[in-house]
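Researcher: Predict the fold of IST1-like protein.
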Amino acid sequence: MHGVFDALKDVLRVGYDASKTKTALRLALGRLKLLRNKRESARRAIETEVGEMLKQSRGFGYDAARIRCETVCREDATLKGYEILELTLETLLARLPAVSASKAVPEELREAIATVIYAAKRAGTEVPELETLKKQFGRKYGREYVAACEGEGTASACGANATVLESLKVKTVDDNTVQRRLEAIAAKNDVVMETPIAIGEEVAMPASESNAAYASAARAAAAAEAAAQRAEAAAAIVASASLHAPSDDATKELSDADVEAVIDEVLAMPDLTVEDATAKPSAPSGPPPGVGQPISDKKVELESSDASDPAKPKAYPKPSAPEEQRGPPTADADDLAGRFAALKKGP
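Model: C-alpha cells for IST1-like protein follow.
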C-alpha cells in the first residue's frame, strides 16, 4: 500500500517533503566525501603501480602499464564529476528554501537540480540518498521533468552540468588521453619513456618510396649473393690449385687479376651452383690435354683394350689425392686446376 501512495504522489505532484530533502542532502554530502576519499586513495595506489611498471618496462611492462593507466583515467574523470556533484549538493542545501517556495524550477537552481537527478541514475548505487532526492524533486516538478533530466539526449537541454554528464558515462577512455596520462606518470616517477607513434598519425610509406626501397633491397640481396658465389669460387680455386699444381720453383706466382679472370669465367657459366660444383659427375668426360697427368714430354700409352674400341673415350690417369683431401676431386675442380697450371707456367 505504501508503494501505491508514493506512486499517486508522484503522479499528482504532491507529497514533497522539504525536511526529507534537507536530510537526504546532508547524508548525500557526507557519503560523497567519504566515497571521494576512498576512490582517491585507490587511484593513487594504481598510479604508483603504473609508475613501477614503467620503471620495469621490459617486454610486456609498457602494455600492462597502459592497461592499468586506463583505470587511472576513468577514476580521474569520476572523481572530477563527484567533486562537481558535491558542490552542487552544497548549493542545493544552501538554497533549499527557494525550492519549497516556487512551483516551477528556479532558474538559479536549474543546473543543480538537473545534475542531481541525472547523477541519481548513474551513482545511485554508491550514494543511495541521490535516489531519495530524485523522488522528492519528481513530486515537486513532475515525472516528465525527471525523465527528461535522466535521458542522455535531453539531460543537457534540461541544464545538467556537462562535466558530470561526461564523467559518469560508461565508455572507453580515449587512447590519446591514456597516452598523456601515462607520460605524466612517467615524468612524475623520473622515467624516460620511449613515446610510441601518436594514434592516427600516418606511418605508411608512400608507394613510390616503397617501390624504390624494395628495388634497392633486391639489388643489395643480388650483390650479396654474387659476392658469396665469388668467395666460394675463389676458395674452390685455391684448394684445387694447391692440390693439382706442380711444385716447381720455376713457376711464377699468380696475380690477383689472373684469379679474378678465372672467377669471372667460372661465374659466367650457366646454371653454376654450389651443388653443381660439388656433385659427383655421372659420366665425366676426359680432361683437356695436360691436365691430370705429370708435366713431361712423354705420352701416356693407352691400353690395348681401350685402343681397340674407338667409341670409348680416352682415359687419362688422375693424380692420387692427398690423405687430407676429403672426397674425390670433381671434374670442375680438375678443369680449374688445369687452367691455373697453364697460367703459372706462363708463355
